[in-house]
């Protein structure tokens, strides 16, 4: 189990990976952005599950145990990440991640905050510009998909504070994947 300081660092790093708007050069130890409240419509008492936003469906190509399938899976994972701004919550991130992935857990918790309305992200889409496959542990079947991610400018608001803008950037992000009858993310790595 990670020490509190290791867990805190992992959470900060994962939050930086989780939401493009929080992934800026010089993230501080206190990633508490300023935020403005955004009025939201009250859900209708007769709203159904079909009225709720949904994460993108896993494409057939991402279901293949091949290097191309791994790349397609990472592109899908990024689409799911982008969809969290619409309030889908963190369940889809959890479904595609290992229980031990600290970064993934922080990302899904942040997505749950967005769904609950305590965090609003405007803009900041991620786009996979390039990706390559590097075998990581061939006997175990793990792969690393190294991406060059383009992250658009946007803003983050939290709990009634002023919006906190973020800058566009390009980052190298590596996804460590494992095949367990489907691809899952074991770890997300960013350069330190």
Can you walk me through this structure?
This protein has 192 residues and is an alpha+beta fold. The chain has a single domain (4-26, 60-189), classed as Roll (Nuclear Transport Factor 2, Chain: A). Helix content is 27%, strand content 28%. It has four helices and seven strands, in the order ααααβββββββ. A four-stranded antiparallel β-sheet has the order 2-3-6-7, covered by helices on one side. A three-stranded antiparallel β-sheet has the order 1-4-5. Strand 2 and strand 3 form a beta hairpin. Helix 1 packs across helix 4. It is globular. The protein starts with a helix and ends with a strand. Mean pLDDT is 76; it is low at 1-49. Residues 54-183 form the DUF6318 domain. Residues 33-62 have a biased composition (Low complexity). It comes from Nocardioides massiliensis.
Tell me the name of the CATH class. Answer: Alpha Beta
Overall pLDDT metric: 76
| H/I helix tally | 4
Q: Enumerate the strands of the largest sheet in spatial order, edge to edge or round the barrel.
A: 2-3-6-7
> Beta-strand level of the residues, as a percent range?
25-35%
Query: Structural class, judged by helices and strands?
Result: alpha+beta
Which architecture does the CATH hierarchy give at level 2?
Answer: Roll
Overall 3D shape: globular
What distance lies between the first and last C-alpha atoms, to the nearest angstrom? 21 Å
User: What is the rounded Rg?
Assistant: 17 Å
Can you tell me the CATH topology?
Nuclear Transport Factor 2, Chain: A
Order of helical and strand elements: HHHHEEEEEEE
What is the count of structural domains? 1
**Helicity range:** 25-40%
* Unreliable sequence segments: 1-49
Pfam family, one: DUF6318
Region (Disordered): 28-66
InterPro entries: DUF6318
Organism: Nocardioides massiliensis
